[in-house]
Design brief:
The chain has one helix and 15 strands; from the N terminus they run αβββββββββββββββ. The chain is mainly beta and 226 residues long. The strands form three sheets. It has a six-stranded antiparallel beta barrel. Strands 10-13-12-11-14-15 form a six-stranded antiparallel β-barrel. Strands 3-7 form a two-stranded antiparallel sheet. The longest helix is centred in the N-terminal third of the chain and has 8 residues.
């Protein structure tokens, strides 16, 4: 029986967490259902970012050699960036000043989200894939996070998972888990091997989300911080 509160429901998806039917990919055992699996539906539902933060967020995707130095390629996810601006590396807490901005093959003095850009910094600051460089209001940076997850596989306190959020990949330990309802939702506490950079959902929903992968590399849970 469906619940009465269906005013804001975007989709009704038949699933089986135990058999992983319609969780990550369409189930061959439910050919009568032709909609999206739950992971694809969540990605579609939240594809339009809800952001209230006015800060700049540059997500590093990779580092490449460039003119005797290096260039950080990534996504300008919010805010703007100008040559000479100083960003803070959330992983190290250290500042880094923008020397050059490139959009494709063109050098520019100013860029605004959403855009894929390359950034050269003054000196040789320690920057690598997965780091978040920011300016303005601070993101949430902590080794321990409280979150709500939707479990695709059984999870027990003490288990380790690879947390992935945008390009961040951090080993975390499940410290505690409390079931929220009769479905597979749970409140959890996660401890990272290193600091995790996220945002409160009300500030920037896209940066509040993550997935947990088990030791086989499969997605064990989808979550968002509280």
């Amino acid at each position: 029986m469906l619940p009465q509160r269906t005013k804001n429901v975007s989709a009704i998806i038949p699933i089986s967490a135990q058999s992983q039917d319609n969780l990550i990919k369409p189930s061959a055992r439910m050919p009568w259902y032709r909609g999206r699996p739950i992971l694809k539906e969540l990605q579609r539902t939240f594809s339009q970012d809800r952001r209230k933060t006015e800060g700049t967020r540059f997500i590093v995707q990779d580092i490449y050699p460039y003119a005797g130095s290096s260039i950080a390629a990534g996504i300008l996810l919010s805010g703007s960036l100008r040559r000479g601006n100083q960003l803070v590396n959330s992983a190290t807490g250290k500042p880094c000043r923008v020397k050059m901005i490139r959009e494709f093959t063109q050098e520019v003095s100013f860029s605004r989200y959403p855009k894929n850009i390359g950034v050269v910094f003054e000196g040789r600051p320690f920057i690598q894939r997965g780091q978040v460089l920011y300016q303005g209001c601070d993101p949430l940076i902590s080794k321990r996070i409280e979150a709500k997850i939707f479990c695709l596989k059984p999870a027990l306190p003490g288990e380790q998972f690879q947390l992935q959020s945008l390009t961040q990949e951090i080993l975390v330990t499940l410290q505690s888990l409390k079931k929220i309802n009769d479905f597979d939702f749970a409140g959890v506490s996660l401890e990272g091997k290193q600091s995790i950079t996220l945002e409160r959902p009300e500030a920037f929903f896209r940066m509040s989300r993550f997935v947990l992968r088990d030791s086989t590399g499969e997605i064990a849970a989808i979550g968002a911080i509280q």
